[in-house]
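Q: I have two molecules that I believe assemble together. Could you output structure tokens for the complex as a whole instead of separate predictions?
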Amino acid sequence: MGGEAASAGMGVTELFQLLRDGVPRTRAQLAKSTGLARSTIAVRVDELMRMGLVTPVAEAASTGGRPPSQFALNPGARVVVAADIGASHATVAITDLGATILAERTEPLDITLGPVPVLTWTLETALALLAEAGRPARDIAAIGIGVPGPVEFSTGRPVNPPIMPGWDRFDIPGWVRQHLDAPVLVDNDVNIMALGERATAWPGTEHLMFVKIATGIGAGVISGGQLLRGAQGVAGDIGHVRVARGSDVPCSCGNRGCLEALASGPAIARELRGQGVDAQNGNDVVDLVKHGNIDAIQAVRQAGRDIGEVLTACVSLMNPSVIAIGGSMARVGEHLIAGVREVVYTRSTPLATEHLSIVQSSAAENAGVSGASMLAIEHALSPAALHMLVTA
Amino acid sequence: MGGEAASAGMGVTELFQLLRDGVPRTRAQLAKSTGLARSTIAVRVDELMRMGLVTPVAEAASTGGRPPSQFALNPGARVVVAADIGASHATVAITDLGATILAERTEPLDITLGPVPVLTWTLETALALLAEAGRPARDIAAIGIGVPGPVEFSTGRPVNPPIMPGWDRFDIPGWVRQHLDAPVLVDNDVNIMALGERATAWPGTEHLMFVKIATGIGAGVISGGQLLRGAQGVAGDIGHVRVARGSDVPCSCGNRGCLEALASGPAIARELRGQGVDAQNGNDVVDLVKHGNIDAIQAVRQAGRDIGEVLTACVSLMNPSVIAIGGSMARVGEHLIAGVREVVYTRSTPLATEHLSIVQSSAAENAGVSGASMLAIEHALSPAALHMLVTA
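A: Yes, here they are, computed for all two components at once.
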């Protein structure tokens, strides 16, 4: 067919989508994979190198003096800001495009202070960390932010977030962009934990559920490689599904028998107090289990069964290959997961559980900030973002 | 930037992805949307017209004599074969690229005959219908097939299908392509029903669950615009989730208290027989309800509540905007759906149900074949398929 080139830089994005995995490739390999002519490849690779996004890679058996013949993503070309804002703490990090953390800080921060104080702290911390990493603000390719509530992902606005007073419909990207000129991606904290867990421990896994068990209970679901957000951004909100055991236990949502009212950290502590055991909160429960307290171990195991009851429905619906259990209560270790496994493997269909792993989160406390970084990197390296860079 | 064209037909697929929605556009509109030069647009539109995929569209206020200035997809350019193979019946149709049915046939067909007899009938019927529609076999752009069991979508092979003896790992696409040279897409029947329901009644909806209630109970889930298939192709298999009411009712799967053992057509009939009502199967239940039998109405309403109990977990996990209830038992009408709504709206969080519609399937018996057609059309109009056409 042939004919002249259609638009500026055509072929650059295709080429870069290949190279972004970091695997070094020769010009010949790139020509073969893209169908582009060798002469075009040479021009396009030069463009990407000029932008700093691609770098020559020395061959293992280089004879020296020869021109570089393999190329790969240059992870240091740009950086991203990753922020994991929780109910009472926040973590901010600067990472490169390979998700390596260059600088990081965690501090107590009360989400109920409202958006402006919380985002001001986040922004100031990001700028301080940038300076620490020796990078100018113009190097920021994107900003990823996780918040503890439902988010309309397309606009980055929280929607009716129950524990974030003052944040409803607040334009987080708009506010941040008044101060930093970079794309801003905002998502629910458990969603970004799912991204972080996959990046950390299960790269390439297309069907993963991350379950956060802490003061509340929620899940982030990756299916077919995509994070599921749902029509109102509340997909994964499994804390208020009813479990059989607890039909009379009242929940803060106004219903009775919700999973969160039975198996969250505060719920287990309350149950233990009812048995005369001194446990004020989830941390106390974790300490008791670590010291071998039988009542606490049994309560945690039962909480695992309750969680398993709800996850059985999730397994039937989603057919994931991995369920990772995280959040502060996951620190109790195997007793909780044993309860989950007991019910899921008993109750689910064999086909859905044959290759299902139910494991403790590997990313643990870093899942959130790692996922926020992934969210930003995915955007920064997307064809659309690169197209803007090329035509800028 | 500029430089010579990179690969054959570059820009054609981009252009076609715009035009495939059937909305007429001018060359100027196409240039604006794609960023391609006007001169390139002219060449590319001519190519698509030469392939027959795009056709000039007369303007409403045309002055006559002027060259055509608007273009759109030509739905009659090619056809697809759509087959919905159920447990005891099969429907085959020929549709155009706009999913309009050109010829259709439904006949009793026993899936347990095994793959070769069933697929032979399907193929012969497709060829007869093609002749009826006056189209040659070379016009077939793709073939979509739904079967009543789990399918590994990437290979088109059924995987451990419980009611399809002889079909396990059978290479359906390979067999069909020995006789017809076109891409073959195979999926689970409830998945294609979800596609068909969306195409028929909810175009543009990104989060839809189709629930089939018949001899078995299963769901097809579209989230973020994508059909969810799961790691083993068994996503949506909600029939064996336990419901609270039925902890002692045995199920064919070996467990007790499964949704299917309580709320499927045969299960409701069994329960009615236990009350002395003459109901041998789901069809009898439907007839009884239509004649106003109070016992049958109450049993159906309770089945709806049981289904609602499982759907509550699905709503929390997926946050859909539509749940469509289909399958042969949906013919009982509002009594079943009222039970579903009663539980889902009581038990789910307000945010997840605020904009949730729970409705009877509009596509009804046509959902399967309409979805098989959509599956084939989606593939036929995809960038990859078009690229092959352009470079052929």
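A: One point stands out. The domain at 79-193+368-391 of chain A is CATH 3.30.420.40 (Nucleotidyltransferase; domain 5).
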